[in-house]
Every structure is written in structure tokens, then in C-alpha cells.
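Proteins fold reproducibly. Next comes a concrete instance:

***
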Amino acid sequence: MPQTHSFDLLLRNARLRGGQGLQDIAVRQGRIAAIGPDLTGTAALEEDAGGRLVLPGLVDTHIHLDKSCLLCRCRDAGGGLKGAIAAVSGLKRAFTVEDVYQRGARTLERAITQGTMHMRAHVELDPLVGLRSFEAMMRLKRDYAFAIDLSVCVFPQEGMTHDPAVEQLLARALAEGADLLGGCPYTDADPSLQMERIFALAVAHDVDLDFHLDFDLDPTWSHLEEICRRTVAAGWQGRVAVGHATKLAAIDDAALERMIALLAEAGVGVTALPSTDLYLNGRDQTHRAPRGVAPVHLLADGGVTVSVATNNVLNPFTPFGDGSLIRMGNLYANLMHLGPERFGDCLDMVSTTAARLMRIADYGIAVGGQADLIVLDADDEADAFGGIATPLMGFKRGRKSFVRPAATLVR
């Protein structure tokens, strides 16, 4: 007779954020069934966390898998944001589904082994690339579902209103399973019309929105207020996010306070993308360059839902990246002079508040929640974040999805 187990997984001796003493975590049918010291029962799989910190799987709210790992094709792309867009635009016509899939898989696997279990991938659609990148993303979503929940956001990187074919491609992708819709008004000949059309498409297809917005340091103009107005008018509060919003780093205190109030009232979330925003902003200054990253911790203090995310990896927009969200949060903390008293807030930006921005249900280590768990090579939250601790293993819906044995000195 086959043995009947109480649980599918028993993760013993886990240290939880804010908790006292070591806890066991029991999982049944992909959900956390019990949490407590010295749980009784048997499990199909039993693992020992060894007193290490256990977190819910990390959440990357903004990444471009379709154009990752392109450095070998365009190492000399210059000119900041415009140069990066032009460089990738020149390559897109030659993208194939298999090419995008392979590069995306390389980046996705890095992210998975760094502890990411939820991800929003922004995918460019235009006549140059057609639906090839989108098709590759949908394949990645299916093939890596054992380890990560991949949400596909289609958007027009190079404008929309100049060519009806772009909107047709977006609508077709939404009809074929895209999870949400994005926009990029600052590259459009008619930014306001793009925002109008993007909101109309979102309402028609009942999907959330995530815009690339205000990506420079010129405080004299902004699209953020219009996004807030359109969000309220559409009744889309809590369903709209913006990425970059680096103008928030260039405005004065009074203007920032006003924008925080508008964002909070409209329920618009904001994602900072430290690596890309640092690399591309402030290039007109040889020294004393501004940091050029939205101060999202201040927005969070004002009631805005915020996150910190990856954006680009190994391409002209960002020729860096290893998929570590803890490293990205750590970079943000360095930039903003945030000490250990705010490490927990920064960790939230790649976990709990990032999950709220993506409207992920039942997120977190609690009975009844999704059993998405990672074990870090640290036994303290401050050390884990400050030291960019390596994830040693992960469990997606209670099933082991990756292992990374701890480094060992050989004396």
C-alpha cells in the first residue's frame, strides 16, 4: 500500500521576517497548511532550512526579456535612451521566435535561481517585430510555469498613433492571451492620444495597465498628472502602474508632495528601475551627475504602492544584470542613503508591495497563502539584504524548483 503523507512539503527550522524562534512550514496542494515550531506529521518531501531566513518568492514587476542578452550584437550603442532605442530597433526586424525565446530563457533562469517567482515581462509590439516576441513570451510563460508566474505586458515602445497597425497588433495580442497592456507616451508623436487609446483598449479588454513614463530629468513637463486623471476617469484605480518616472527625482519638495498626493488618490503604483535609470540619466553632465532614480520610498510613505525592479539585462539600455532583485533593492538603498532601519522597506519593494502592485492574490508566508518560498543563505533580515544573500533553494507551490548549494571554502 502506498504511504499516505500529511503534507506535500515540510520545511523545517525556518526563520521568518519579524518572527521569533524557528518555525516549520507545512504545505499541502500548493498552499501553506500550517506554520509553527516542531510541526507533527509526515511529508512527501522534508527539507531543513537550518535556521536560515525564508521569504516568499520575490516579485519583479518590470523586465524586458525580449531584448535581454543583446550585448554581443550591439556593444557600441551610444547616445543614452534614444541611442538604446535606435540600436534595438535596428535589430528587431531580424528577431525570430526562437532567438527571443533563447535569450529570454537565459535571463529567466537567472532570475529564477535568484529567487524570483512572479514577473511582469514588458514585450514590444510594432510592425518591425510583429508578434514574434509575444509568441516567444507565451512559450516561456508555459514552459517555466513550474518555477515562475510570468505575466505578459504588451506595449508600443516606438510610438502607436502614427500607424494603425500598432494598435491592431496590441489588440490581437490581448485577444491571444496577453495579461495586460502598457504604454510609452514619451516616444509618441501624440502622447495624449496614445494614453487615450491605451486606456480605451484596457477598458475594452478588462486588463491592467503599466506605462513607461517621464523617463528624463526635465521637470518642466510631465505625463504623470494626465495618467492620474485618466485612471480616475476610467475607474481603473489600483490597476495602473508606471515605470521609471525619473522626473520625480528632479522636482522640488513641494511639487513632489503634490505628485505623491495625486498618485495616492488615483491609486497609481510606481516602479523604480535603479540600474537602467542610473545608467541612462544625467549623461549630459561629466561629474556631479544626478542620481536620476525616482525616490519611491518617499512615495510609499505617502501611501503610494511602489516597487523596485530589474528593467533591462545585458543590452544597450543596461549592460549589467544577474537577475538578483535583492541586489537591485540593495542598489536602491545605496542610492537613497537608506540604512538598516529601512532595509525591511526596501525588501518589501521586491516582495510584498511589489506583489500588491501586480495584484497577486494570497501572497506571503501565511496559512492559506501560496506556497512560494525561498531559503536565503543568511539568518538575519538585515544581513540578508545588506549582504545580498544568495538564495539556496526555492519551492514553487510547494514543489522544489531550484537549488544553489552554499559556497564552501576548501582549505
